[in-house]
Design goal:
alpha+beta, six-stranded antiparallel beta sheet, disordered C terminus, binds adenosine-5'-diphosphate
Length: about 625
């Protein structure tokens, strides 16, 4: 302490011991004593200030007011004792103003009044307060919701919420202060994030969690909360600061991404992503893994080149070039993919480029076209088969038309001859009226009967065709005497025999009874026998042979006639077909066709052997099962 007035040097020692700035002024407000601290505060040396008016230390603008203010301390020393601390401004030697706290303490020594001025520098405190203001403004204006709760009070009540919190939740300050934060969960407490948060708070640890919270109006929002404990100097947690972040949009976006990833993975189409440079796969979906038989890990070790068979790396890069050069948005081609087990399958490949950071990736969508290929193959086969069927049908149609034409001309011819014979005979019968001409009349009447008989046969054949085609033919199976039928047929055929022709009867059929359709047996035998007569020259023999065993009867008619040309043999049972060597002989080409249909309907068959100019043998086999019912 440096003193200017000896009266107060008693206390100089004491004043140096205190940490505050101390200035003693006399009645004239001249500085009579100043401690080191005070001198340093104002950036003077104490010598510079001793004897100087106190106003030297006060900014000009406050000087007058200050002088008056201090003067009143001298008026009534007792009353003015220990005036309260005031925040005023001091001025340093450099002219810099700074906030100070000043307390005036007047005292008297030896009838002299002095004022002890206690000075404290408030710059630092003001700065701290300013900083605090800035910080609290920062807290208020931050975009994150901030909650501070008191950890020392029961149930950790909220003591502060910032503007962002109020905006985010819709609650006002008064609605949330002194409440525990849990109201933000409403009843939705069974959440993993909530449990983690509780445990962290209990343990006084920090944590970051994602929880479902609800606004005042009930709207759900995803809250990413960071909890930070604040500890006092003893390490005890006094507060928790919760920083809230509304991540609803982010969660939604993540959900969408997850959803798209699921679609990507679940797609049965094969999707591959590979690097355009290294050709290595970076991602492959489930569909692709399933179809190729490779796991994702295995696929990541190979390249697209290993999957595509029969293509060189050079060719593959050529295919990729338009994509890399951005000339094409998409490249499509068909190839074969090789599975892990070595089997291959056809695919339609769609390539598209997509950039990720600096690397260019190629997205492959491969469609397994095995089925399509099979289908096309099948379709082609079906088309070929149908075309063939169509051609065959057309051919048949053509043949049928030709046969019909042939038939019409044949019918007109077949009808003409017997009709003219009948007409001639009828005319002649009329002319031969005398009784002695009875023989001639008989001969002509026989011709008429034979003509009518012949025409009736043709008409019956036509009717038979009609019935057979419509499936209307009804067979009646009965037990009958075989020799009776055979004799009748041969008897009727006798009048057709040419000069010198002879029919040899079958042996061993006397007393034989069979179970069959009598009419059909008669029709078959008649047809075969008439043909044998018709297509054999005069003076030849015709043999009828019949063999019977337990189940079947075999009827054979053989002749030594003109035979059937080899080329025509395969057509012989076709309706209206007639061989080249019989065109001058009467006939319709219907008989054998009808015989074959009947025989087959009755479960039998017909075959023949023939050599041109040597003869033919026709054999019919029919079942004679006595249990057979009507067909
Ligand atoms: P068609 O009325 O012409 O005799 P069929 O259907 O009975 O008709 O016979 C068909 C064709 O089979 C005959 O036109 C003939 O060319 C040939 N044919 C049938 N039987 C004989 C046979 N015994 N000898 C030679 N050719 C025969």
């Amino acid at each position: 302490m440096y003193v200017f007035d000896k009266n107060i040097d008693i206390c100089h020692l004491l004043s140096e011991a205190v940490s505050e700035g101390i200035i003693v002024i006399n009645k004239d407000q001249l500085i009579v004593s100043i401690n080191k601290k005070a001198a340093r505060l104002f950036e003077f040396t104490h010598y510079e200030l001793l004897g100087k008016p106190l106003s030297e230390l006060i900014p000009d603008k406050y000087k007058n007011a200050h002088k008056e203010h201090v003067a009143k301390y001298y008026k009534d020393v007792k009353k003015a004792k220990m005036a309260g601390g005031r925040c005023v401004h001091g001025q340093r030697k450099s002219g810099e103003e700074f906030p100070v706290n000043v307390r005036f303490n007047p005292f008297s020594i030896y009838q002299n009044t002095y004022v002890l001025v206690l000075v404290n520098d408030l710059s630092e405190r003001v700065q701290i307060e300013k900083n605090l203001d800035i910080k609290s403004e920062a807290l208020e204006s931050t975009q994150n919701g901030i909650v501070i709760s008191d950890a020392l009070k029961e149930d950790r009540p909220i003591i502060y919420v910032n503007r962002a919190f109020r905006k985010l939740t819709g609650y006002s300050e008064s609605e949330v202060l002194n409440r525990n934060c849990r109201f933000l969960q409403k009843d939705d407490n069974d959440q993993r994030g909530v449990k983690i948060m509780h445990n962290a708070i209990k343990a006084g640890k920090k944590c970051q969690v994602r929880v479902r919270n609800y606004k005042k109006d009930g709207t759900l929002f995803w809250n990413e909360i960071s909890i930070n404990p604040i500890r006092n100097h003893e390490g005890k947690v006094t507060h928790f600061v919760g920083i809230q972040n509304d991540i609803t949009k982010r969660v939604k976006a993540e959900d969408e991404i997850r959803h798209f990833l699921k679609i990507f993975d679940d797609s049965l189409n094969e999707i591959y992503v590979f690097d355009s440079e290294t050709l290595r796969f970076s991602h492959v979906n489930y569909g692709a893994q399933k179809n190729t038989g490779y796991s994702l890990r295995e696929l990541k070790k190979i390249t697209i080149k290993d999957l595509i068979t029969g293509i060189t790396e050079e060719r593959l890069r050529e295919i990729l070039d338009p994509l890399n050069l951005n000339n094409h948005k998409k490249v499509t081609f068909e190839t074969l993919f090789k599975r892990k087990d070595g089997t291959t399958y056809p695919v339609e490949v769609h390539l598209q480029s997509s950039s990720l950071g600096d690397s260019v990736l190629i997205v492959v969508i491969a469609l397994d076209i095995s089925e399509r290929k099979n289908y096309t193959h099948k379709l082609e086969k079906t088309v070929a088969r149908r075309t063939q069927e169509l051609n065959e049908a057309l051919l048949k149609e053509k043949e049928l038309n030709e046969l019909k034409t042939k038939f019409l001309s044949m019918v007109s011819h077949e009808f003409k001859t017997p009709l003219s014979t009948i007409l001639t005979s009828a005319t002649l019968v009329g002319k031969y009226g005398n009784s002695y001409q009875q023989g001639i009349r008989k001969k002509h009447l026989k011709s008429i009967a034979s003509g009518v008989h012949y025409l009736t046969g043709i008409l019956n054949d036509f009717l038979s065709i009609e019935r057979l085609e419509k499936g209307k033919e009804i067979y009646r199976l009965t037990d009958f005497s075989l020799s009776k039928v055979v004799n009748q047929v041969i008897y009727n055929a006798n009048m057709l025999l040419k000069t010198g022709q002879k029919i040899n009867y079958p042996m061993n059929i006397e007393d034989v009874t069979i179970h069959q359709d009598e009419k059909i047996i008669s029709l078959v035998l008649t047809n075969l026998l008439h043909n044998a007569i018709k297509y054999s020259p005069e003076k030849t023999e015709i043999d009828i042979q019949i063999d019977i065993d337990e189940d079947a009867i075999r009827l054979s008619v053989s002749d030594r006639g003109i035979g059937i040309p080899k080329n025509d043999q395969k057509h012989i049972f076709k309706r209206y077909f007639r061989a080249d060597n019989v065109l001058l002989t009467q006939g319709t080409g219907i008989g054998l066709n009808i015989v074959k249909s009947h025989v087959e309907n009755l479960g039998g068959n017909i075959c023949f052997k023939s050599e041109e100019n040597k003869g033919s043998i026709f054999t019919v086999t029919l079942p004679i099962n006595s249990n057979a019912e009507e067909y």
